[in-house]
Amino acid sequence: MKEVFTRSKALTEAPFHYCPGCTHGIIHRLVAEKIEEMDLLGKAIGVTPVGCAGFCQQYFNIDMQGAAHGRAPAVATGIKRALPDKFVFTYQGDGDLASIGIAEIMHAAARGENITAIFVNNAIYGMTGGQMAPTTLPGQKTSTSPFGREASLAGFPLDMPRIMAQIEGAAYVASVSVDSPKNVIQAKRAIGQAFECQLAGRGFSFVSILSTCPTNWGLSPVKSLEWLREKMMQQFALGILKDVSAK
Amino acid sequence: MAPGSSTINRKRVVALKKYLLKGNEAIAEAAIKAGCRLFFGYPITPSTEIIEYMAKHLPAVDGSFVQAESEVSAINMCYGAAGAGVRVMTASSSPGMSLMQEGLSYIAANELPVVLVNIVRAGPGLGGLGPSQADYFQATKGGGHGDYRLIVLAPNSVQELVDLTRDAFDLADMHRNPVLLIADGILGQMMEPVVFKELEAPSLPDKTWATTGAEGRPRNIITSYALQNEIGEANCLRWEAKYKNIAATEQRWEQYMIDDADYVVVAYGTTARIAKAAVQQARQEGIKVGLLRPVTLWPFPVKAFAALGGKVKGYLTVELSAGQMIEDVRLAINCAVPVHLCNRQGGMVPSPEEVLARFKEVFPNSVEGGV
Ligand SMILES: Cc1ncc(C[n+]2csc(CCOP(=O)(O)OP(=O)(O)O)c2C)c(N)n1
Ligand code: SF4
């Protein structure tokens, strides 16, 4: 019988703990498939965030270090400076990367640190039970914006890929989504291009991926995908925002 | 050689040329000679010469220097680099050390060998640039969250800055534990002649746990995340056993004129130099007083106090704080005899005369014919 689907060698056999309909799992798979396809299993070192993906060292079948909340880009910098020939990436949520870790990610990019950041934006703090994130949409209800995010009190969402694209040291910046088969393919391509960027020594690479949090959005998995398309994509436009190799 | 013990036992092979070096530069050069190849730091007076020296000299040995965006980031870079198995150091001064406490807790939890330097300045808050020992509690009692210990080394001369920097790297690798070298602006800025002794390297365990890419071996994971309480407790028990072993094997101190002493002055670092001069003056006046200088602040050299037995009638600690080490002295002797404090704060330093006057004030019976 022809095998049409199999687990990537870059994933362990541990079952994901993510909620039903959460797209962290799809994103793990895409990252793992690229690690395997690009023959990086033996040379990859991943850095985990604090957040729902804080246990991803159980899933990625490679060497991993767990960072404090938001510090993954600094940890990755230390690893890459120690082992410049190895492949180093971070996997971070929006609270981790865009709030508590905003300095670490911006300066890793500013230094042109030759690492890759995978940024999972679900517009909310998943792990701690659905509080407002820096990426929470205007009007979006969360447990700490119970009346909806109001600009006069809580400001506006940060569009991280657009911010990162402004930084000279960032060599590759993409904004993608995993809400449809077409977008999943595009997301995987972007992850591959970001990895390629690091392997070619071109500098910092950043892939922002719009993701769902059905549990804390209070929506079914299907409705969550609709909400992502209708609301999040309006705020965070998709596209390859920067690719120095394309010049 | 100071008494006490260490698992780092060295045979001197040959003494090299003398250099006249500033304390901070001596630390940096000693680190490079000890094989430190990565340095992450953020400028702060009075420790900045260390990061400047590293920026200038690491490239020549194929090392890497990063001026981090903050001390928060610098310590996390150290965490990554140490996890990758390379000798790494950072240096800062009190306000910067406060920012490093989060990362230090993770480094301690993951048992990673990182060497840190704190050139302590007066606090709390932004404070002043003058010498201080007010970070003693932070250094020896944990500092960050959770139950952990740093090995804390307290040199009192530029030569000792060099020797203990070297030892710091070996101790860190030996015990898989962060090591903190603590000094102040006087030691950091002072110029003294030093030699870089050529020493046999101790045999150290291989870093089989490092995250270097899993090629040809099972993968390595470095994480302190333990949501299951049973796993959490097992981790804590492992750390506790390690700290007990370090406490039993790594206490170091120096003693001076202590054999016949009725009274003992206890001081480390800069104040130990001042206290030594005060002890010399007291001896000229016929007062039987000696000096005990802790070289390791953690583990605190309780063995030195135990060895003095019941002979000593009282202790005086000399500290640049409101009295921090004094608590460890009282614990070390079980409050058996009076322990008094001679201190200056906020960047001020006592003179030997002040120390002697304070000594006579609290121990009037120590003086011939005193009441
Ligand atoms: C220093 C610190 N502050 C707060 C927390 C609590 N905390 C854990 S996860 C998290 C938010 C994670 O949200 P996000 O990065 O968006 O990831 P998600 O869980 O949504 O994937 C917070 C605030 C922590 N672990 N450490
Ligand atoms: S809480 Fe949200 S982000 Fe976390 S696993 Fe569940 S759905 Fe995913």
How would you sum up this structure, described in words?
The complex is a heterodimer of chains A (247) and B (371). Chain A has 247 residues and is an alpha/beta fold. Chain A has one domain (24-246): Thiamin diphosphate (ThDP)-binding fold, Pyr/PP domains (Rossmann fold, 3-Layer(aba) Sandwich). Helix content of chain A is 36%, strand content 17%. Chain A has helices spanning 24-37, 72-82, 94-100, 102-110, 151-154, 160-165, 181-199, 214-217, 221-235; strands at 44-48, 63-66, 87-93, 116-121, 170-177, 204-210, 239-243. Chain A has a seven-stranded mixed beta sheet, sandwiched between helices. Chain B folds into two domains: 12-205 and 223-249, Rossmann fold (3-Layer(aba) Sandwich), CATH 3.40.50.970; 253-365, Rossmann fold, CATH 3.40.50.920. In chain B, 38% of the residues lie in helices and 20% in strands. In chain B, strand 13 (263-266), helix 9 and strand 14 form a beta-alpha-beta unit. The longest helix of chain B has 21 residues, at 229-249. Classes of the chains: A alpha/beta (247), B alpha/beta (371). The interface between A and B is large, with 36 and 39 residues. Strand 2 (63-66) of chain A pairs parallel with strand 11 (221-222) of chain B, so a sheet runs across the interface. The complex binds thiamine diphosphate and iron/sulfur cluster. The site of iron/sulfur cluster has 11 residues of chain A, from helix 8. Chain A: It comes from Desulforamulus aquiferis. Chain A: This is Thiamine pyrophosphate-dependent enzyme. Chain A: Residues 57-207 form the Thiamine pyrophosphate enzyme TPP-binding domain. Chain A: One of its GO terms (molecular function) is thiamine pyrophosphate binding. Chain A: It holds the Pfam family TPP_enzyme_C.
